[in-house]
Amino acid sequence: MEVNVQFKKGVLELCCLFLIQKKDQYGYELAQHVSQYVEVAEGAIYPVLRRLVKEGYCDTYLKESTEGPSRKYYQLTVKGEIYMNELMFEWKDFVSSVNRLFNEGGENIG
């Protein structure tokens, strides 16, 4: 299913934070996990990750890999966990509001 690019951009940060919170991940691994649910180019993940690190929501560390060079892993900071929880609340509220609007118009989408 093709999803509007603006929808993807708006939720990609939240998807990354959510997945990193579950388990520290490296960029390619994260891109693969997101792509299981939302079609996204691998290259779209890296600018998001750089911004999350720059803003203090994630830290990075290198870890040896059995399949090649060391990998840069991303982990959530305390600030990042707080931010992710705020985004989750806003996202759920937003989706609920849009669904209410659609339901009032006779469209039941979920």
Write the layout of secondary structure elements.
Layout lengths: L4 H18 L2 E2 H9 L6 H13 L3 E8 L2 E9 L1 H27 L6
Antiparallel strand pairs: 1-3, 2-3
Helix pairs in contact: 1-4, 2-3
Protein name: PadR family transcriptional regulator
Pfam family, one: PadR
InterPro entries: Metal_resp_DNA-bind_regulator, Tscrpt_reg_PadR_N, WH-like_DNA-bd_sf, WH_DNA-bd_sf
Describe this structure in words.
This protein has 110 residues and is of the alpha+beta class. The chain has one domain (5-103): Orthogonal Bundle (Arc Repressor Mutant, subunit A), CATH 1.10.10. It has 4 helices and 3 strands. The protein has helices at residues 5-22, 27-35, 42-54, 78-104, and strands spanning 25-26, 58-65, 68-76. The protein has a 3-stranded antiparallel sheet. A hairpin with a 2-residue loop joins strand 2 and strand 3. Helix 1 (5-22) packs across helix 4 (78-104). The mean pLDDT is 88. This is PadR family transcriptional regulator. Residues 17-85 form the Transcription regulator PadR N-terminal domain. Pfam families: PadR.
